[in-house]
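Reminder: ligand-aware prediction takes two inputs, not one.
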Amino acid sequence: MTGLDSPGGSQPASAPRDVLGDPVPTGGPAAGGPATGGPAFDGHHPPAPELVADCVHCGFCLPTCPTYVLWGEEMDSPRGRIHLMKQGIDGEPLSDSMVEHFDRCLGCMSCVTACPSGVRYDRLIESTRQQVERRHRRSPRDRALRAAIFALFPYPRRLRLLRGPLRAYQGTGLRSLVTRSGLLPRLAPTLAALDSLAPRLRRPPRPPSRVPARGARRARVGMLTGCVQRAFFPDVNAATARILAAEGCEVVILPDRQGCCGALSVHNGREVEAQRFARRLIDAFADEELDYFVVNAAGCGSTLKEYGDLLRDDPRYAERAAAFAGRVRDLSEVLVELGPAARRHPLPVTVAYHDACHLAHAQGVRAQPRDLLRGIPGLELREIADPEICCGSAGIYNVLNPGPAAELGDRKARTVLATGADLLVTANPGCLMQVAASVARAGGDIALAHTAQVLDASLRGAPAESLLQGRAPS
Ligand code: SF4
Ligand code: SF4
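Here is what comes back for the chain with iron/sulfur cluster:
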């Protein structure tokens, strides 16, 4: 039986269910329903008081927090949000205002990097979000939007089916019609940006199940195909598999078995749904002996590395999840760990590298992508100012909070364009879309590519022009 066959894992069939039919944990007095004046948090993994107590209120994190940078409000800073968590732990109810401040957090983890006291804000906000999803009743509009997002984004096949209608949406007067519907305009610009950036393929090619290593095998690796990446950026997955093979890795993909890794669900407090996706992915690769499990999307990688934590309460999966997580690497980490074997051909192009938050802050991977790019002869690498500030993508943040996301995107577009680079490179599909849309709004012109596509072009000896064709949608 797969995790999908059994949505709640070990939850009983009679457990309360959320809007998509998933059981919710039954850990506290108000679990499964809205808090009605009771304490903010139930007993199922509330934000840990000892982690809250690590914050010494020094404020070093404030200038790196995008929402504090935007509004200058204490309660929209990491320190302010930790203070609200403390209030909740002390028995305050979960007010609408508290939830609003938690919701405004991008989960970018810039504060984790900046904090000199090692405060694990990542763990704090994750448990807080789970409590909010269980105990706070959102407005009907918000619930409908979230239900639509989570019925669509974690399912690559459903995303793929949307490509035809999206082109119609972009190319005809349909856009003005749907504007009146209220919900779709929030989703459609993001989806339309996806489709603008995706290669014009009628049907994305099905990834192969296995790709043999070229030359002597140095490692055997699994590879995540992802949801958005698979449906809209199949070229990035193809480039990833080619690079790994060229560097001596046998690549195990098993596209028919793997689905969403659960990252979007984790980042939005949907614990049971995330656990269901995680169990399914672990099962999909259970029979394979792998040295590494390679991920080319920053948000997915950070979640996969935390599978041990996500499934820690599940006696059937806890050990397997921790072992699986221990093998997870970002593509750049694996390639740097293995060292270069294949020949790099010159690629005369100027590149601005954008740190995806879930790669730089959540995984601490900053040097490896830069090392890979610097290893390409003829490539000039330029740094973007204020690299620690999020571009506003943050998973589905730009759909749920389009205003602040656009402001952050505009700031990022200015700093990206100021580099004067020909090509913006990053390791996350969400960032690619967000920066593309922001650059287009600013009237700028820069090509966009994933790190894998740049290295792949160098290994294949492809001309720089092949990368410069992927431009921001106008
Ligand atoms: S995760 Fe990002 S947005 Fe949230 S508090 Fe930390 S720095 Fe601010
Ligand atoms: S989270 Fe860290 S940097 Fe921010 S106020 Fe607390 S101790 Fe200081």
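Residues 55-61, 78-79, 111, 114-115, 117, 119 surround iron/sulfur cluster (ligand 2) (CB under 6 Å). The first helix runs from residue 49 to 53. We will return to this case in the review session.
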